[in-house]
Design brief:
heterodimer; A: six-stranded mixed β-sheet; B: 114 residues; mainly beta; 0% helix
């Protein structure tokens, strides 16, 4: 089955700096790669996703890049703000069922 | 997301007890999922259901069972709870017809098995 590895497990940045979280996956059949943000006491919420026919996608301060050859994808957050502090999960999925395999999560802390 | 609700939000039980966690959604989605979250392990899929008559095991279904009572309701049962089932449990839904099939998560149920 699919295996998704996520690094780093914790990340602290100064407000205004950029943050990068990286994930690798094992199954070349995976073609859907969402990123979720989980705030304390809440369920994960989708913040951005990318499909395998696209190399990069941006949404305001958030961007995701995908390298299918190397089987890795990354989340980039620019101009970080304290409200970006949360746990971020990457995931990989494929097929019509969109079964997702999640990474282990990254605790991002934005220091004021 | 308020459209996906889970009850109870917190539960303490004893080893050997049977418990049920409930999930309801008002999104009108066909697909529903149960995940388990342990610290440092991300989310692991327990069961998923594509419609009322279609239920499938996920990667960690042992010790769990589910019931899809209606399109909007999906329950997870622990027949005989054990301490290593202590975890945070999430229900999620998705719409098979949407381009990305985004999964929408409920707020979670924190379960402690003593």
């Amino acid at each position: 089955g699919e295996n998704v590895e996520q690094h780093p497990s914790t990340l602290s940045v100064q407000e205004g700096d950029s943050a990068v979280i990286k994930c690798t996956y094992s199954d070349s059949a995976s073609n859907y790669f969402p990123w979720y943000k989980q705030e304390l006491g809440k369920g994960p919420q989708l913040i951005i996703d990318i499909r395998s026919n696209v190399g990069e996608k941006k949404d305001q301060r958030i961007a995701v890049t995908l390298n299918k050859t190397a089987k890795h994808f990354s989340l980039h957050i620019t101009e970080t703000q304290p409200e970006d502090s949360a746990v971020y999960f990457c995931a990989a999925g494929w097929g019509s069922a969109r079964q997702l395999t999640f990474g282990s999560g990254t605790q991002l802390t934005v220091l004021p | 997301d308020a459209d996906v609700t889970q009850t109870p939000r917190n539960r303490i039980t004893k080893t050997g007890k049977r418990i049920m966690l409930e999930c309801s959604q008002t999104k009108g989605h066909d697909r529903m999922y149960w995940y388990r979250q342990d610290p440092g392990l991300g989310l692991q899929l327990i069961y998923y259901s594509f419609d009322v008559k279609d239920i499938n095991k996920g990667e960690i279904s042992d010790g769990y069972s589910v019931s899809r009572q209606a399109q909007a309701k999906f329950s997870l049962s622990l027949e005989s709870a054990i301490p290593n089932q202590t975890a945070l449990y999430f229900c999620a839904t998705s719409d098979a017809g949407s381009p990305g099939e985004t999964q929408y998560f409920g707020p979670g149920t924190r379960l402690l098995v003593l």
